[in-house]
UniProtKB/TrEMBL annotation:
One of its GO terms (cellular component) is extracellular region. Residues 116-253 form the C1q domain. SUPFAM superfamilies: TNF-like (SSF49842). Gene3D superfamilies: 2.60.120.40. PANTHER family: C1Q-RELATED FACTOR (PTHR22923:SF64), CEREBELLIN-RELATED (PTHR22923). Transmembrane segments: none annotated. Its main location: secreted. Keywords: Coiled coil, Secreted, Signal. It is found in: Secreted. Residues 19-46 form a coiled coil. This is C1q domain-containing protein.
Length: 253
């Protein structure tokens, strides 16, 4: 009986030892899990901070400077700005949590939403009929207007008036009739800026020539096309479905 008791006691001691070892193992595993969770949390915080910073900079590159510079930015203004940026970042974080990382279209749309609209200025017009007897120093009228964004070109005078300061591109095409030669120039505020010659004098055919300029204009500056005042011209200016004599321009910045 005593031998059986000793055997039971030894077995119980062995079981207790094993249980203790298992408890130690579980405790170590729990520590490792906690450490991993802490590291993941820290990493996630770092990533979220980076995403917040990048997202804020994309939406408003002057975020920090707008808070710190200028006497008009009081504490209330700063708080409103911070609140707006945090809401924006939270939207991004929801995408991250749902594994919906925004792509380039996301950023492009955000930039477009936060970009001030720019008034488009552009026009294109051509002559509806031939100019059968052009003379020197004659303003050419391109009366058939196809595009006139900003309404800055007049089909009655042939003159473009700059609606605002900026850099503009202008181009014009003149087609000369059979045995004709036409000297034309683009004029800015009565001063020639560029010129072309369209010459078909020696052949039984039409010829076309195109000029193009890039110029900086101020508000109210006028631009138009005229024949050269100092050189004689011959023949007629052609404009029909197969060869349009035209004038166009647009603001690039």
């Amino acid at each position: 009986m005593r031998v059986e008791f000793e055997e039971i006691w030894k077995h119980q001691a062995t079981q207790d030892k094993r249980i203790h070892e298992l408890e130690l193992t579980i405790e170590n595993q729990n520590k490792q899990i906690r450490n991993l969770k802490r590291r993941c949390t820290d990493k996630e915080k770092d990533n979220i901070y980076k995403l917040f910073k990048e997202d804020s900079q994309i939406i408003n590159p002057n975020f920090e400077s707008e808070q710190l510079v200028g006497p008009k930015h009081n504490q209330s203004d700063v708080l409103k700005t911070q609140t707006t940026e945090i809401k924006t970042s939270l939207t991004y974080r929801r995408h991250v949590v749902n594994n919906e990382i925004p792509n380039r279209d996301y950023y492009r749309k955000r930039r477009q939403m936060n970009t001030d609209p720019v008034n488009t200025v552009a026009f294109y017009a051509y002559m509806s009929t031939h100019e059968t007897n052009p003379g020197r120093h004659q303003t050419l009228i391109f009366d058939m207007v196809k595009t006139n964004l900003g309404s800055s070109y007049s089909k009655h005078t042939g003159v473009f008036s700059a609606p605002e300061h900026g850099t503009y591109v202008f181009t014009w095409t003149i087609t000369s009739g059979v045995h004709s030669y036409i000297y034309s120039e683009i004029v800015i505020n009565s001063v020639p800026f560029g010129s072309i010659v369209t010459d078909s004098e020696e052949i039984h055919d039409y010829h076309s020539a195109t000029g193009i300029i890039v110029v900086q204009l101020n508000h109210g500056d006028v631009v138009y096309i005229r024949t050269n005042p100092n050189v004689s011209i011959k023949g007629q200016i052609m404009s029909q479905s197969l060869c349009r004599s035209s004038f166009s321009g647009w603001k690039i910045m």
